Q: What sequence folds into this?
């Protein structure tokens, strides 16, 4: 073929590439129904607060640092996967609402990461500085969850065990808390606590931390306050999104060791 003077080789190749791409696109859309096409081409919006991280393809983990291979998008990874993970649930008759996970830093999504701690499988590690809870697994990995922790002056640290676990627990604020906040007297231990429910501060699950046979009064528990994940706001306990605490509860055995650092 002889190219005309008005059509350079570069222009010819570019036009050829466009033709091939158009044919390929036509082939894809012809086998795709309308609903699927709309779902896969739905627009996303940048969230600058979540930008500046890259994803580890081995574990799907969002890590600090520059984004490789293009502009940072700030988009949550595997959107459909996390929409299902943090979607609405009915649990023991209680309606757990969906979590707007797009508004949470993607680092705090539940995800599998490498085990770098050297603790034995079944151990729970709470990193209060990074706001992560890790459950060590037997395959060399750890399941990581984002958490909210106690305000400075209320936080607890050390080694203990999960002495017992409770689904949809009653909340019984300790007497010291009631003394600081008299409005909680109606939920005191003497008055039987607050009944289970979606507004209960312990959420869908609670795991009670003991040390040397004594109740530390600190818990791993659920919370509907997803905005608190990644922050230090609660009165000493380690809180998780309700969907995450249910997942953790099912993985943790009674008597599991826990290390809070």
A:
């Amino acid at each position: 073929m002889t190219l005309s003077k008005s059509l350079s080789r570069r222009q010819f190749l570019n036009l050829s590439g466009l033709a091939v791409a158009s044919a390929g696109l036509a082939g894809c859309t012809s086998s795709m129904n309308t609903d699927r096409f709309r779902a896969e081409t739905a627009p996303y919006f940048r969230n600058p607060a979540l930008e500046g991280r890259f994803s580890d393809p081995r574990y799907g983990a969002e890590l600090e640092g520059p984004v490789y291979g293009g502009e940072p998008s700030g988009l949550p990874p595997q959107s459909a996967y996390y929409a299902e993970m943090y979607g609405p649930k009915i649990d023991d008759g209680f309606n757990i609402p969906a979590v707007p996970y797009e508004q949470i830093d993607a680092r705090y999504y539940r995800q599998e990461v490498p085990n770098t701690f050297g603790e034995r499988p079944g151990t729970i590690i709470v990193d209060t500085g990074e706001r992560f809870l890790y459950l060590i697994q037997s395959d060399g990995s750890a399941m990581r969850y984002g958490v909210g922790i106690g305000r400075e002056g209320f936080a607890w640290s050390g080694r203990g065990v999960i002495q017992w676990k409770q689904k949809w627990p009653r909340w019984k604020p300790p007497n010291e808390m009631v003394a600081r906040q008299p409005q909680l007297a109606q939920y005191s231990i003497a008055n039987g606590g607050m009944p289970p429910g979606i507004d209960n501060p312990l959420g869908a699950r609670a795991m009670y931390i003991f040390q040397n046979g004594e109740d530390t009064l600190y818990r791993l528990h659920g919370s509907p306050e997803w905005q608190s994940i990644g922050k230090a706001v609660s009165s000493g306990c380690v809180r998780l999104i309700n969907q995450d605490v249910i997942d953790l509860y099912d993985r943790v055995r009674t008597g599991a060791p826990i290390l809070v650092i």
